[in-house]
Every structure is written in C-alpha cells, then in structure tokens.
Amino acid sequence: MCLNGPWSFAFDNQAEYNQPAEVPAWPLEIRVPFAPETMASGIADTGFHPRCWYKRTFSYEKDPANPRLILHFGAVDYEARVWLNGHFLGEHRGGHTPFWFDASHAALNGVNTLIVRADDDPGDLAKPRGKQDWQLEPHSIWYPRTSGIWQTVWLERAADVYIHRMSWTPLLERWEIGAEFFIGGPRRDSLRLRVRLSVKDKLLADDTYQVINREVHRRIALSDPGIDDFRNELLWSPESPTLIDATVELLDGDRVIDRVVSYTALRSVSVQRGRFLLNGRP
Description:
- The chain is built from one helix and 20 strands.
- It is an all-beta fold.
- It has two domains: 154 residues, Sandwich (Jelly Rolls); 117 residues, Sandwich (Immunoglobulin-like), CATH 2.60.40.10.
- The strands form six sheets. It has a six-stranded antiparallel beta sheet, with no helix packed on it. A four-stranded antiparallel beta sheet has the order 15-14-17-18, with no helix packed on it.
- Strand 12 and strand 13 form a beta hairpin.
- The radius of gyration is 23 Å and the shape is globular.
C-alpha cells in the first residue's frame, strides 16, 4: 500500500515538541513524497525549519496468512522518528538511505494513525550535507535545501517468515551473478530459496538453495551457449540496456511463503591506463 499523497503537516521551528501528543495543531497539508521546500508539496516554504511533523491515517485489515506489516521509507532528511497508533516504532539517521520498521505489533484492524518527526537543522555544518545550503538563500547552488520526507512511503504485507532484503553483483568475467539473500522472521531449518533469472523468453538460471542461518550467498552461473552475438546482446550498456528479470521464491517444504520480483544486469566497470572501460571496452 503506497502512502504517498496528502498528509497533515506542522512546522516546529523551535524544536520544542518531542512527542506526537505535544503537537498542538496540524495547520498545513503536504503532499508526500515532496519536500516542504518544493512547489509540488503544496507548501513551498524554503525558510529555516529545524523540525517538522507529519501525520496521516490508513485503513488496515489483518491477514492471518500475511501477519507482518512492514513500513518502508525511501528517505527522510535528516533524522526520523516514527510512531504508529502511539507506539514508537524506531528512528533513523541519514537523509539519503532507505529504512523500514516492523509495524505488526502496533497495527490495528481498521483505522491507523502514523506520525513522523523529521529533524534537519540547516545550521548544523557537522552532518553530511552534500550540497545542502546552510544559508537562508542558496549562495553556491541554484536550488533550495531539502528536508523531511522526500521519497516514497509504503506498507508491505509479509508472511511470518519473509524475504527481508537481497542484492545482486554482476560477475562478467565468470558469466555469473553474485546474489545475497537475507530472511526475516524466526529461523526455520526447512526453508529453501528458488531463484529464476531470464531475459525475455530465455531462461538463464533456475536454482534452489538451502537457507542457512536465515541467509543465502551464491554465485549463480548463467546458461551460456558460447555464441558471441548472444553474449553481446545480454551485456548492459547505454545503447543496449538489457535487464535480467529475477523471480525469487521462499519455500517452506513445497509451499511458497514469499515471492519477490526483481531485476539485475550483466556488465563490468573498470579503469585502465586512465580510460574508463564498460564491459572491457572504452
């Protein structure tokens, strides 16, 4: 469930409110995921605001087959603290990285209230800022600073045991894809992970691995007919941005308990003699 759209909003210019119950009023409406400095947010206020608050409601019905509710944030600049129905879910520091909370214990059947506090002191020059300006008006860049929620917020239903996260690493020299998978929830010795990789209608790999200590680390060999034309078509480049489709299934016995659809690509990046090489070519 995507939570982008209208949220109730309040500036806290003196950073005097620490808990949601202390916020006296929610006088503004903001459109997430646009930062309050932007026109698209509906607020377009580029002043100094070290703290701001967000609130919205959503409806939720618990599902015994998927009892977990995972709350995801694409990014909040710079520090975020999150409450659901008055329960503190957690906090995150860093304005450019995604984060998540398991909200299962706090979620209610029916209407739920989600509140986010975002702290981003523009005068704090010690924190990583990229090109964020610390003066009221931009003096070395052409755009204003960004604060608060500025990436998508969404809810994910999940089984009691689920695919928590994964990563892909192209290994062009070996014609392989490196893969790492991490399983959330209680440990089970009966878990297996099935991974299928394909391009269009051609199957490149279909393998099943045992989950050990809630993790899988593998190098997945791709089917290779040894034909140069096929190899060249499979490589990613700006001129031919071929993507490899991935389907990952978490199995408990023969039963699929979670499924994730993803993608990756096969390419190499290197520098030789001062030249940038993509797939071994300048």
